[in-house]
Amino acid sequence: MPINIPKQMPAREVLEKEKIFVMDEERASTQDIRPLNILILNLMPEKEKTEVQLLRLLGNTPLQVNITFLHMETHHSKNVSKWHLEQFYKTFSSVKKYYFDGMIITGAPIEHLPFEKVNYWDELKEIMDWSKDHVTSVMHICWGAQAALYHHYGIGKFELPSKCSGIYKHTIADQTVKLVRGFDEVYFAPHSRYTSVSREKIMEHPELKLLSEGEAGPFMIMSKDEKHIMVTGHLEYDTDTLAIEYERDLKKGLDIQMPENYFPNNDVNEQPLNTWRSHSHLLFSNWLNYYVYQETPYEQDRKVKVDVPVPNEF
User: Fold this and answer.
1) Quick one: pLDDT band at residue 80, thresholds 50, 70, 90?
2) Which phi and psi (to 5°) does residue 250 adopt?
């Protein structure tokens, strides 16, 4: 089934070329289906790229999904136009009276900052607290996962000796957990970060369960009430995302190493191979099915779609 996004959204053209089933509000209203309402708090600087990456995965299940994008009111985004935010995004103050079936909080390239020094930390804390009784399940990605571990469970991050960048091998701790149902015993996932979290503190915490780990440390962590899912890497990344980041860091003059296990023969002129695509789709499919669709209450009056304004309303 399709994802429902505005007709004018740039991601729509990309997804349609990939044969992802995209639907607009007019057609969706003719179907007698209870769609899932998913809120995406997009903290990434290049928001349009992240939109495509996440919508591609959310649009590949049998479920009809309504998407609402959220940006921070207390932060000015430099890499996306004001027009784009006004057309396709909401702010927390405009959605906090609603309930959502699921929510995604993305990563953000601000790991060098203590959480309290992030200019939108107070707003993010309010959103994370609000999600406890307004969202059925929340998936946190990379820095978003670290923020959730810190805010909800008191587990901080620590700096790594060098950037963790590349494609790393992971294993599953418990194959019976629904989130990793269908995963291979060994699978690969991209990582791109300067910080990590303590495996020992996760294992010792009475409210957390470590689902998967690997060469890059803890990867998937879930609260035992299954409310929060923390993914420290980037299964949503495109094939060339790490290459683009590497080139960007080199142009900045950073002392950066080539992404590990990424370029064939460690040759930047060779095209990387995507070895994580199937598991990225599986992760999002399992999350939507088992932790959102199967768990969310069927109460239409509480699950109100927050429509993104069309251009002529501005």
Assistant:
1) confident
2) -65, -40
**pTM across the whole model:** 0.88
CA distance readout (Å), 164 to 161, 216, 257: 9, 7, 9
Residues carrying an active site annotation: 142, 234, 236
Q: What are phi and psi of 116, to 5 degrees?
A: -65, -15
Quick check: helix, strand or coil at residue 219?
Answer: strand
Q: Give the largest CA-CA distance in the chain.
A: 56
Sign of the CA dihedral with 162 first, then 163, 166, and 169 last: positive
Q: For the chain, how many structural domains are there in total?
A: 1
C-alpha distances out from residue 246 to 27, 176, 192, 260, Å: 41, 37, 10, 11
Binding-site positions for substrate: 163, 192, 248
CATH number of domain containing 128: 3.40.50.880
Task: Tell whether 78 is covered by a domain.
Answer: yes
